[in-house]
Specification:
Layout: H1 5-9, H2 11-15, E1 18-28, E2 33-44, E3 53-60, E4 66-76, E5 79-83, E6 87-93, E7 98-105, E8 111-119, E9 125-134, E10 137-148
Antiparallel strand pairs: 1-2, 1-10, 2-3, 3-4, 4-5, 5-6, 6-7, 7-8, 8-9, 9-10
Protein backbone atom coordinates (compact mmCIF):
# COMPACT_ATOMS: atom_id res chain seq x y z
CA UNK A 1 0.00 0.00 0.00
CA UNK A 2 1.43 3.39 -0.95
CA UNK A 3 1.68 6.23 1.54
CA UNK A 4 -0.75 9.15 1.34
CA UNK A 5 0.34 11.89 -1.08
CA UNK A 6 0.38 14.42 1.79
CA UNK A 7 3.39 12.60 3.29
CA UNK A 8 5.29 12.80 0.01
CA UNK A 9 4.38 16.37 -0.85
CA UNK A 10 4.70 17.72 2.71
CA UNK A 11 7.77 15.92 4.11
CA UNK A 12 8.23 18.38 6.98
CA UNK A 13 4.65 17.82 8.12
CA UNK A 14 5.31 14.06 7.95
CA UNK A 15 8.17 14.50 10.45
CA UNK A 16 5.68 15.97 12.94
CA UNK A 17 3.46 12.88 13.08
CA UNK A 18 3.23 11.33 16.53
CA UNK A 19 2.74 12.58 20.07
CA UNK A 20 4.29 15.71 21.54
CA UNK A 21 4.39 17.01 25.12
CA UNK A 22 5.38 20.48 26.16
CA UNK A 23 4.65 23.80 27.75
CA UNK A 24 2.74 26.80 26.40
CA UNK A 25 3.69 30.20 27.83
CA UNK A 26 1.49 33.16 26.85
CA UNK A 27 3.25 36.53 27.19
CA UNK A 28 2.31 40.15 26.66
CA UNK A 29 4.35 42.50 24.48
CA UNK A 30 6.73 43.25 27.38
CA UNK A 31 7.39 39.53 27.96
CA UNK A 32 5.31 39.22 31.14
CA UNK A 33 3.71 35.80 31.58
CA UNK A 34 -0.08 35.90 31.17
CA UNK A 35 -0.72 32.14 31.28
CA UNK A 36 1.23 28.88 31.35
CA UNK A 37 0.05 25.30 30.87
CA UNK A 38 1.21 21.89 29.70
CA UNK A 39 0.19 20.17 26.50
CA UNK A 40 -0.04 16.79 24.82
CA UNK A 41 -0.63 16.92 21.05
CA UNK A 42 -1.29 14.01 18.73
CA UNK A 43 -0.56 14.60 15.03
CA UNK A 44 -1.76 11.83 12.72
CA UNK A 45 -2.96 10.65 9.35
CA UNK A 46 -6.30 8.94 10.07
CA UNK A 47 -6.31 5.26 9.13
CA UNK A 48 -9.93 5.53 8.00
CA UNK A 49 -9.05 8.35 5.54
CA UNK A 50 -11.87 10.50 6.97
CA UNK A 51 -9.47 13.45 6.67
CA UNK A 52 -6.00 13.90 5.26
CA UNK A 53 -4.62 15.05 8.64
CA UNK A 54 -5.96 15.05 12.19
CA UNK A 55 -4.63 16.71 15.31
CA UNK A 56 -5.78 16.44 18.92
CA UNK A 57 -4.61 19.10 21.39
CA UNK A 58 -4.89 18.41 25.12
CA UNK A 59 -4.09 21.15 27.64
CA UNK A 60 -3.73 21.05 31.42
CA UNK A 61 -3.31 23.93 33.88
CA UNK A 62 -1.84 23.80 37.39
CA UNK A 63 -5.28 24.51 38.91
CA UNK A 64 -6.69 21.32 37.37
CA UNK A 65 -8.44 22.92 34.37
CA UNK A 66 -8.31 20.77 31.23
CA UNK A 67 -9.24 21.27 27.58
CA UNK A 68 -9.21 19.05 24.52
CA UNK A 69 -9.66 20.23 20.93
CA UNK A 70 -9.76 18.23 17.70
CA UNK A 71 -8.55 19.65 14.40
CA UNK A 72 -9.29 17.65 11.26
CA UNK A 73 -7.69 19.04 8.11
CA UNK A 74 -7.78 18.38 4.40
CA UNK A 75 -4.89 18.54 1.97
CA UNK A 76 -4.82 20.62 -1.21
CA UNK A 77 -1.95 22.18 -3.19
CA UNK A 78 0.78 21.48 -0.60
CA UNK A 79 -1.21 22.99 2.28
CA UNK A 80 -3.41 21.55 4.98
CA UNK A 81 -6.69 23.37 5.50
CA UNK A 82 -8.54 23.54 8.82
CA UNK A 83 -12.22 24.48 9.05
CA UNK A 84 -13.77 23.46 12.36
CA UNK A 85 -16.36 25.00 14.67
CA UNK A 86 -13.44 26.67 16.49
CA UNK A 87 -10.94 27.76 13.80
CA UNK A 88 -10.33 28.31 10.11
CA UNK A 89 -6.88 28.43 8.58
CA UNK A 90 -4.12 26.66 6.73
CA UNK A 91 -0.54 25.46 7.14
CA UNK A 92 2.31 25.14 4.67
CA UNK A 93 6.02 24.32 4.63
CA UNK A 94 8.45 27.24 4.50
CA UNK A 95 11.70 25.24 4.31
CA UNK A 96 13.11 21.85 5.35
CA UNK A 97 12.44 22.38 9.07
CA UNK A 98 9.65 24.97 9.30
CA UNK A 99 5.87 24.90 9.10
CA UNK A 100 3.82 28.10 9.03
CA UNK A 101 0.18 28.28 10.05
CA UNK A 102 -2.28 31.15 9.76
CA UNK A 103 -5.62 30.77 11.47
CA UNK A 104 -8.46 32.68 13.08
CA UNK A 105 -10.88 31.79 15.84
CA UNK A 106 -14.32 31.96 14.30
CA UNK A 107 -15.88 33.62 17.36
CA UNK A 108 -13.40 36.52 17.53
CA UNK A 109 -13.88 39.23 14.87
CA UNK A 110 -10.88 41.07 13.37
CA UNK A 111 -8.51 38.53 14.89
CA UNK A 112 -5.91 36.10 13.50
CA UNK A 113 -2.62 34.56 14.42
CA UNK A 114 0.48 33.26 12.73
CA UNK A 115 2.32 30.25 14.07
CA UNK A 116 5.87 29.24 13.19
CA UNK A 117 6.90 25.67 14.03
CA UNK A 118 10.50 24.45 13.83
CA UNK A 119 11.35 20.76 14.14
CA UNK A 120 14.87 19.65 15.09
CA UNK A 121 17.01 17.62 12.66
CA UNK A 122 16.61 14.57 14.93
CA UNK A 123 12.78 15.01 14.77
CA UNK A 124 12.44 14.87 18.58
CA UNK A 125 12.08 18.56 19.51
CA UNK A 126 9.85 21.38 18.35
CA UNK A 127 9.88 25.11 19.03
CA UNK A 128 6.71 27.02 18.20
CA UNK A 129 5.77 30.69 18.34
CA UNK A 130 2.32 32.23 17.95
CA UNK A 131 1.95 35.90 17.08
CA UNK A 132 -1.56 37.13 18.05
CA UNK A 133 -3.14 40.01 16.06
CA UNK A 134 -6.30 42.01 16.73
CA UNK A 135 -7.25 44.74 14.23
CA UNK A 136 -3.88 44.04 12.54
CA UNK A 137 -1.92 44.92 15.70
CA UNK A 138 0.14 42.37 17.60
CA UNK A 139 -0.96 42.14 21.23
CA UNK A 140 0.58 38.94 22.64
CA UNK A 141 2.68 35.87 21.86
CA UNK A 142 2.65 32.22 22.82
CA UNK A 143 5.98 30.42 23.21
CA UNK A 144 5.83 26.64 23.00
CA UNK A 145 8.58 24.12 23.72
CA UNK A 146 7.84 20.47 22.93
CA UNK A 147 9.46 17.07 22.93
CA UNK A 148 8.36 13.95 21.12
CA UNK A 149 6.68 11.49 23.48
CA UNK A 150 8.63 8.23 23.39
Amino acid sequence: MSQPVILTEMPVLARHLGDWVGTYTLVDLEGRTLDKYTSHLTCQIPADASHDYYQINRYKWADGKREEHQFPADYCEQKIWFDTDRIAGHAWEADDSTLLLKFAYKTVPNFYLYEMIQISPCNNYRARTWQWFKDNQIFQRTLIQEERLR
